[in-house]
Amino acid sequence: MPIINRIADYQDELTEWRRYLHQNPELGFEEFKTSDFVAKKLEGMGLSVHRGLAGTGVVATLTSGDGDGGAIALRADMDALPLQEKGSIAHRSETPGKMHACGHDGHTTMLLGAAKYLAETQNFNGTVQFVFQPAEEGKGGGEKMIEDGLFNLFPADEVYGMHNMPGIKVGEFAVAPGPMMAARDNFEILVQGRGSHAAMPHQGVDPVVVGAHIVLALQTITSRNINPQESLVVSVTQFHAGEAFNIIPDTVMLKGTCRVFNNELQGTLPDRIQRIVDGVSSTFGAKSELTYHKGYPATINAEPQTKFCADVAKEIAGSENGVDLKPVPSMGAEDFSYMLQKRPGCYIWAGNGDSAGLHHPEYDFNDQLLAVGASYWSRLVEQRLPKNI
Fold first, then answer.
1. pTM to 2 decimals?
2. Is 108:132 a contact under the CB 8 Å cutoff?
3. 110 and 4 in contact (C-beta within 8 Å)?
4. Nearest CA to 247 among 189, 193, 200?
5. Strand (E) positions, 78-157?
């Protein structure tokens, strides 16, 4: 694969950086050592570095040429997961209960590698904002950076993101216009019945039965309430009730998640669920309370920027066969979606090879991807902000 030769020379250094980050994982909004490490490296490259957006975020600015070529932002996430690492790799996590199980250590390192190369060569005309984001894993660090003025303080016409993907060969990519990742909401349903002896159910209102009917009825949202051409998942993942064999409890707590690619459809889900909860509960004489937590919107790629990224990826992959242009969108969620709501751009998957899956306790980022990803970022900048000759 045509990795940039100069970046290939960084391989040992990038591997050292990535493994240091892997050994020192930090959770969302707690990336203090990580952001110190990132800021120090960027400052050593001669970039202008700003810290503090979303608490632990880091943004570095590099302008080359006359600066009139426009401005783009490249984003990497930095946080780890609350997961105990398994396996016996030499650079395994040194922090109990925390690990980089999603590859954010690699994402951070790839962007640092691109920053190093671009600062050295400056073979472009314009401005690059290198955005190192905290708290992607469920805490909305991307949204917080925007609220703190990301694109006001660091203007960008477009924004780009990248995530490793196990199961795709290293050196290959997958990208498509439109949805790449789903919107993600969570909900809680408290069913209030009336407890009784299990042998005398007629003396109470059984919330377990009510809860069971709610679980089944919620599936009709997907099967009967929306267009079959839409993709929607409504999953009840927790059902908490009772403490004894012979007591019907007073209450049941249900918890679950919704995943959807259509942001407009996402907005209708609270009312749809509420109607089902109210209807089923009243049928059995119970009362229920729905608490709905709206989460990340869908990650939606803009078509022009996606076509451009696909062309860059083909160059790095060495052929068109190395880029899947019709990947099946993932029902996972990604808070890069907030940035794509503010600026057009593209989110691409880069192959991590045959590693364990994302969020698995034996996952490890493939260091062979480091130079590939850094080369992709660098070519993206050089082709999106070409230098006048």
1. 0.95
2. yes
3. no
4. 200
5. 126-133
